[in-house]
Amino acid sequence: MRGIWRYREPAGERAVPECPPVTIIVAARNEAAHLADLNSCLQRQSYPNDLLQIIIVDDRSEDATPNLLAELQRHSRFEALRLENVPERYSSKKHALTNGLAAAQHEIILLTDADCRPGPDWVRLLVACFRPDTVAVVGFSPVISPNPAMSGLLLLDSLAVAAAGLAGVGWRKPFLATGRNLAYRKSAFAAAGGFAGFAQQVSGDDDVLLQQLARQGPVEFALPPESQVLSPGGPRSLRAWIGQKRRHISAAQSYVPAAQLGYLIFHACNAALWLAPFLAGWPGLLLLALKATADFLVLRSAAARLACRPRWIFLGGWELTHLILHLLAGAAAFVGKPRWKK
User: Fold this and answer.
1) CATH number at residue 208
2) pLDDT digits over 216-227, tens only?
3) pTM score, two decimals?
4) Do 234 and 266 have their domain in common?
């Protein structure tokens, strides 16, 4: 919790020029249902149009995505790249992002997903976090779902991820980010070796990459609510959520050893606290209650800093769901090969 409040927004000399040219990269596979809305959000950015390059990488889509992109290009300003295959040494999304980065003309790169909805000030506020030595900026991306119950759980879960990410940046040990709302320098990406070493893993294009970028220089966190990127197409069921978590957790195979150990200790302690009431009776129940209270205080601190308003009535359900999800998804992540999208 101290790390959440320890972080201070960047001060001092701004990036030069104040509005540097920026490239936005979106990797899309079978996203015909979402691309029109995303394109509308990107075209309405408050950033100067002549300083904005938008690249949408069509990763072998089998739906109407290619035709839709061609239609959107008739009245919108963006570049569409079509990929027909994926080399064996790459996961499909990393291959798409690598091609997007190769086509990027500018130093500052912003990333989001095809099913996300960035607000009109998104680019401006993320760019404002860059200083001459800043290598990356992490943003908050709240996830919701058409299913109201799932939406309550997902928002708390995305808040928990953001809390951990913000605390890591606050302690100057960045380790967690989401590719739905992330920015970094193209030169820092190259200096960090890009996706080398984890290119075949289905995930890790955000958090594992961030850990490598952090070795190149300072990382900042975008706090303004207007910098958030909403993800309204979250999983509609627990089964779909487990599949999503499986992809995310698989990235832990490439975490630095200290981060892997930290995750192992955290989840082991979490499981032990849930078992405590059955093993130790009332003292164990008291320990579990103290854990839930601590979780609430941490999440409330993050919600205050990020201007997020979760429905706290779902906190108990999220606590239990979080444990089950990570036990199931964590085991599944190391069995078989998770895929980005079919």
Assistant:
1) 3.90.550.10
2) 999 999 999 999
3) 0.88
4) no
